Amino acid sequence: MSRDNISGIAPDNFAPERFLDTCVKNTALDPYSYTFGFGKRICPGRFFADNSIFLFVTGLVASFVISPAGPDERHTLLETPFRHGLMRFPESFQVCILPRSKQVAEELKERARDKSG
Hints:
Order of helices and strands: HHEEEEH
Cofactor: heme
Radius of gyration: 19 Å
Helix content: 25-40%
Organism: Rhizopogon vesiculosus
Strand content: 5-15%
Structural class: alpha+beta
Largest sheet: 2 strands, antiparallel
Number of strands: 4
Distance between the termini: 47 Å
């Protein structure tokens, strides 16, 4: 269902406008409507899953600066090819991940020490 080309935009392209109401051919299905199942068989943990991902991503963005790696750190979309199969995921790409503050770095070191025993 998520791979259908019903919006007129190739499903492999990053094009968030396919979900906008102003899009000429806005026939794309809302992914949330089918991701967790339908009717009586809908996933009871869907809200927990959504909230867990939201908290993880906001914590990551709040704690780290994530930018393209290398000398030319322009802020552009990375054109990353995807691997296809049972699951679809991007090929490896280089990024630079740095803590936003010394406090975050110290907390990470402390947690690593606690985990190592």
